[in-house]
Design a protein that fits this description.
GO terms for molecular function: isomerase activity. By secondary structure, this protein is α+β, with helices and mostly antiparallel strands.
Length: 352
């Protein structure tokens, strides 16, 4: 399925091995990793198209289904569950209905989802006329050709601190940053502080060796500050470079995931950016153009924009926390069938 601006393989948990190591080994063979082209599997040779959703009925009274997101590395034999994915999340509700985990409503369906990776929750609401998922519609999102039915995803306030360091601003490797987590651990950095404009193409930013080295150092140090420990082998926190808007939005962004530069921006990453822009004293507060009368924040990215509804409230200790976060995405079923995984590799010199 395509979920938002990502694409992945969606599985029922019961159809995969229960033991994580065996499951991950199978998924590497299904997706065609490790191989830069993923020529022998379902993967699309990019982190945004090498994703997996594992879905099961939930025993949590606050959820209908459990959703485990797995990021399958392209050129490494690695499967990570250290982060959520808000784009793949957009397909979870329709998939749950398709697989009989949730009964569709006659007009629309709301599916309560527990994101196993973090323990957070989301509710996805989408049209289902006549009790069947409707994928066609007139909702348009940047980075996806054409239109589709809207999937409205609302996130209740999570249990984690919006400011993991307890401060609206920190200095990491000599650069002011704001570390924020509104569903995705994210480090906000003013692009100019790294001697780039923030308007460069993703390819140009990826080819900047000096910038890549600086971002790596910042990410490793920020990860420890945010309580994530050694993040050298993980995909979080994400790093988002900020610049003043150019197309009438609130802010311009370039996001690293964590090495490749995102051609757009992830849903949960955008939710964290939007909340971060509202934090007084934060890195983005002086760059963003935000209307005080509206919760809507338009985040510009390399291929367009993403609208997030975001509002904050104060906690008893005076720190900000999320009040409401919602986004409109789309999803589409691309293929439903049987995948034949690559055979288990034989030791060199063994039988063929």
């Amino acid at each position: 399925m395509r979920g938002g601006t990502s694409k992945g393989a969606y599985f029922l948990a019961a159809d995969l091995p229960a033991e994580p190591a065996a499951r991950d080994e199978l998924l590497l063979r299904i997706m065609g990793s490790p191989d830069a082209r993923q020529i022998d599997g379902l993967g699309g040779a990019h982190p945004l198209t090498s994703k997996v959703a594992v879905v099961s009925p939930s025993t949590d009274p606050h959820a209908d289904v459990d959703y485990l997101f797995l990021q399958v590395a392209v050129d490494r034999a690695d499967v990570s569950d250290r982060q959520n994915c808000g784009n793949i999340l957009a397909g979870i509700g329709p998939f749950a209905v398709e697989r009989g985990l949730v009964r569709a409503g006659e007009e629309e369906t709301a599916v309560r989802i527990r994101m196993v990776n973090s323990g957070d929750y989301a509710t996805a609401t989408f049209p289902s006329p006549g009790g069947r998922v409707e994928y066609g519609g007139d909702a348009e999102i940047s980075g996806v050709p054409g239109t589709a039915a809207p999937v409205v995803i609302e996130f209740p306030a999570g249990a984690s601190a919006l400011l993991p360091t307890g401060r609206p601003r920190d200095e990491v490797d000599g650069v002011p940053v704001t570390c924020v987590d509104n569903g995705m651990p994210t480090v906000l950095i003013e692009a100019a502080a790294l001697k780039v404009t923030g308007y460069e193409s993703p390819r140009d930013l990826e080819e900047d060796v000096e910038l890549a080295d600086r971002l790596r150092r910042i990410r490793l140090r920020a990860g420890r500050l945010m309580g994530l420990g050694d993040v050298s082998d993980t995909t979080v926190p994400k790093l988002t470079l900020l610049a003043p808007p150019r197309q009438g939005g609130a802010i311009t962004t370039r996001t690293f995931i964590p090495v490749r530069c995102h051609p757009s921006i992830g849903v949960l990453g955008a939710a964290s950016v939007a909340a971060g822009l509202r934090i007084e004293g934060g890195v983005g507060a002086d760059l963003a153009v935000i209307s005080p009368e509206s919760d809507r924040i338009r985040i510009e990215h390399p291929t367009g924009f993403l609208d997030i509804d975001s509002s904050l409230k104060a906690t008893p200790d005076g720190l900000p926390s999320a009040r409401r976060t919602a986004v409109v995405r789309t999803a589409r079923k691309i293929f439903d069938g049987t995948v034949f995984p690559r055979a288990v590799a034989q030791p060199r010199g063994g039988h063929r």
